Amino acid sequence: MKAKSIVFFLLALAASFLAATYRWGDSAHSIGLIRTSGGEARHPAFLGSGEDSYTLIATATVVPPYRGDVRVVLEGEPVMDHRISLSGPIVDLGIRRNPELRGNIIRGLQPMDRIALWVEMKPPPIDPICGMSYTDGFLEVSYAGRPYYFCSEACAEAFSKDPDRYKNNDGARGKYTVAFYDTKTGRPVLNVPVLFTGKGDAKDAGHH
Amino acid sequence: MRRMQGTTENHFFVKRRSWILILGVVLFMPPLSFLFQFTQDSSFCGTWCPRMFFTWRPDMTAGAFMSGMVRSYMGVILVLGAVLSTFFLGRVWCSHLCPVGGTSELGSRLIPEKLKIRLDTIPASPVRYGYLAAYLLLPALGLGSLCCSYCNFATAPRFLGASFSHADMAFFLRTAGLVNLGLLVGLGFLTKGGRGYCNLLCPVGALDALSNRLGEKFGRRIRVVEDRCNGCGLCKDACPVGAVEAGETVRIDQLSCFPCGLCMKACPRHAIAYGPRKTCQKEERVPAAPSYALTGHDRKDLAA
């Protein structure tokens, strides 16, 4: 009985270790402070390149004395389809005032408000050779069971010569920012860096 | 024969447990999120987070640790309240009040029994404390984190809110969300008793169970009246957390037990009682119960 307990304890510990260190490439979480003088995110959000869609949970607290309306913008090239939703009570009982999201503007932020935003992102397909993002007229070529898109015959031909070299280049890469601007002054009150890293090399295991 | 007054199985908190669970779910969970709205929250994430404040990260100062506790002050109150009340009364938070465990258990009652997985062959305590050890150690060593990533306190409210709110739905539109949905369904709805996550993984439950075990001598617990037990094992089948060990007389593992009272209901000999240590061990102290079985194992009353 004792030995069985020890085995199960160690198995649970090992499984939990794997679970805790593994990172999902399509999900990230960031915590930030909204400030009049430009706020800060505690750490950048890391996402893995090559996924079809991504979800970032961005939570932020409003540092006094800031109050106002804030426009949320996903900045970065190429432009991504995205949808922002604000988590809040479904049936608002009016016990406390809650900030509201209309369009991409959070209205009525007050000191010490705490918001939780869900930013869903969908990157366009990218030409793995030249890096252009998809527009009408791109050529579609299937390789290893999935489609790749090319701006021209030349790019498609370069790909077909050495597909293994380029096959992971069609996902979102580089730095994006979820930027929060005060609608009156136009100044940033929080920037959340979102870093797209190559598949498998996202280093940060996430704090939460 | 009329069921006798005063036996522990007639206890209000045993008889009405389902209603208390439903009340907890309605008061805490979406769409109403009634209690959360007092602190400008809509779920456990934020002021009410009962899990994040007791983890340590390597870059953390004592001040940052304290501010984490201030940020989740309702969560701190919740956990301290649960652990303290458990010391004296047993794990009432877990068995009756926790809306996440409640969602999981009530959901499992809607699933046909034959589809459910039995997890009672897994020794729960070693798994639970293996998970708790990783839960505390890995963030402290900077190797990763289990909180949030596998949190049913984050998942269950969103599961209930998903059909009303896109923000809640978005929780599930990503791999981590699907994994959490899998945990809620696999270790909850599809588990016999509906309490797999509670019993195997929940870090709050793990702390609470320690308090339950440490306060065993001093507080009220579910206990076996040994003179009356014949070791039939009906209580073992009824237990949702695998806390009953069968033998000549059954034993209750206070490191897993919570006072749901399902074993008391299942016992035809009234051999399980809830109370302080002294009054539960000797038969004459539970005067309302008969000294011999009047019911068969199918719980039919033989004297009726």
Secondary structure elements and pairings:
The complex is a heterodimer of chains A (208) and B (304).
Chain A: H1 2-21, E1 27-34, E2 40-41, E3 45-48, E4 54-62, E5 68-75, E6 81-86, E7 100-102, E8 105-109, E9 114-122, E10 139-143, E11 146-150, H2 153-161, H3 163-166, E12 174-182, E13 188-197
Parallel strand pairs in A: 1-4, 3-13
Antiparallel strand pairs in A: 1-2, 4-9, 5-8, 5-12, 6-9, 7-8, 10-11, 12-13
Chain B: H1 12-15, H2 17-28, H3 62-71, H4 73-89, H5 92-97, H6 99-109, H7 124-141, H8 152-161, H9 166-170, H10 175-189, H11 196-200, H12 203-214, E1 221-224, H13 234-238, E2 244-245, E3 251-252, H14 262-266, E4 272-275, H15 277-281
Antiparallel strand pairs in B: 1-4, 2-3
Helix pairs in contact in B: 2-6, 3-4, 4-12, 6-10, 8-10
Essential attributes:
heterodimer; A: 208 residues; alpha+beta; Immunoglobulin-like; 2 domains; 3 helices; flat; B: 304 residues; mainly alpha; 46% helix; 4% strand; globular; disordered N terminus
Report on this model:
The complex is a heterodimer of chains A (208) and B (304). Chain A is built from three helices and 13 strands. With 208 residues, chain A is of the alpha+beta class. Chain B is mainly alpha-helical and 304 residues long. Chain B has two domains: 12-213, no CATH class; 216-285, 2-Layer Sandwich (Alpha-Beta Plaits), CATH 3.30.70. The longest helix of chain B has 18 residues, at 124-141. Chain B is globular, with a radius of gyration of 20 Å. The chains are: A alpha+beta (208), B mainly alpha (304).
In short:
Chain A is built from 3 helices and 13 strands; from the N terminus they run H-E-E-E-E-E-E-E-E-E-E-E-H-H-E-E. Chain A has 208 residues and is of the alpha+beta class. In chain B, the strands form 2 sheets. Chain B has a two-stranded antiparallel sheet with strand order 1-4. In chain B, strands 2-3 form a two-stranded antiparallel sheet.
Major beta-sheet overview of chain B = 2 strands, antiparallel
Look at the helices and sheets of chain B and give the structural class: mainly alpha
Q: What is the CA–CA distance across the termini of chain A?
A: 35 Å
Pair of chains with the largest interface and how many residues each contributes: A-B, 50 and 55 residues
> How many domains is the backbone of chain A divided into?
2
Rg of chain B over CA atoms, rounded to whole Å, is 20 Å
Indicate how many domains the architecture of chain B comprises: 2
